[in-house]
Amino acid sequence: MTKPLDHTAATSGLTKVRFIALMAMLMSINALSIDIMLPGLQEIGASLGVADENHRQYVLSAYLIGMGSAQLFFGPVSDRFGRKAPLLGGLALYGACALAIVFVPTFSALLAFRFVQGVGAAATRVVTVSIVRDVYGGRQMAEIMSLVMMVFMIVPVVAPSVGQLIMLFSEWHMIFVVIALFAVVVAALVALGLRETLAPDNRRAFTATAILDGFRIVLTNRLALLYTLATSVIFGSLFGFVNSAQQVLVGVYGLGIWFPAVFATFAGMMAVASFINSRLVQRFGMRALSHAALLGFALASFVWSVLSLIGPLPLVLFVLLQAVAMFQFGLIAANFNAMAMEPLGHVAGTASSVLGFMQTVGGTLIGALIGQAFDGTVTPLAIGFLTVAVLALAFVLVAEGGRLFKPQNPAA
């Protein structure tokens, strides 16, 4: 069993608010790396000779694949050597690649550095979740993760506008300079403000046998595995939307410079949902909130799919249905992650890496399929959302033995 830590000692004397803010900044690195460049994808493609507009999406996919695959490395490393050193190493690699991209001569070189940048960013995803699990468990972990996700979701609200502002006064290279500077700031805050949270008694050997045993523990836990699969397909819908957001909102609906404002609406809905979840999860539990949200997500996706097949959707109706779906996503993500991690506290680093790998790589591949299916309408996106909703519901039903809304954690 995991040896519990004193919350104040584990967070180096940080208040709860500052701890949540630091964890959110770490998690937000990935959102920033994706969303800030959405307004610049067209110029990146034009500057580096990318003819097919769908191929511009590879700037996002290369990063996500690098981040997803490297999580399998950072998890066992953080279980052996602690959380702080791997985290700072990942931030250094992430920032260095951002600066290198400023000087790339070709699109293939940009993709290569984006992949390696994602490798560095994997540390922020794995170690952040591990730190939260080191310090909190049960509904408390769900509450903390909800608040982290709430702040994390503010980044997609702001980042496209920042990217648009950069594009108005400079050009796409400056986007990566800003990303590098953000990495330096976050690394300084971690170095100065966070103690090691992995208790010495919970460190695991860094051997092939120990690593494989950790993977076995994760992959043979039914709840952890199935909730991870459910989260993976749900993330696929989010990545699918991010991949095609610029094409839909600018190409289909002609929003132009107003694209960041509408995109921010969807991210804002997820942030609001995460905040609501943090207020309600202690009372109602993770399953009640997330299962209801999953059913709502499926219903909104079904209505959206049917209407899109009937004819072109007006902008207002598209925004309404997408916003409803994104609100449900905000209730699903933190709870599903907390339920997947709950039984795995004794191998939190390895567990976070395996779960993060499956969620990121699985979600990226599904999102790429949805994004590449773009045909000038919102229909492929709507059908993609409905498909992942049905798959996620199937995984949850198997995990719960066919019964939804059954609480398993007591209120704090």
Automatic annotation (TrEMBL):
Protein's name according to its UniProt entry: Bcr/CflA family efflux transporter
One Pfam family hit: MFS_1
Annotated source species: Sinorhizobium saheli
PROSITE patterns to which the protein is assigned, alphabetical: MFS (PS50850)
Residue ranges annotated for the Major facilitator superfamily (MFS) profile domain, each copy included: 19-402
Cellular compartments per GO CC: plasma membrane
UniProt cross-references to SUPFAM superfamilies, sorted A to Z: MFS general substrate transporter
InterPro entries cross-referenced by the UniProt entry: Efflux_drug-R_Bcr/CmlA (IPR004812), MFS (IPR011701), MFS_dom (IPR020846), MFS_trans_sf (IPR036259)
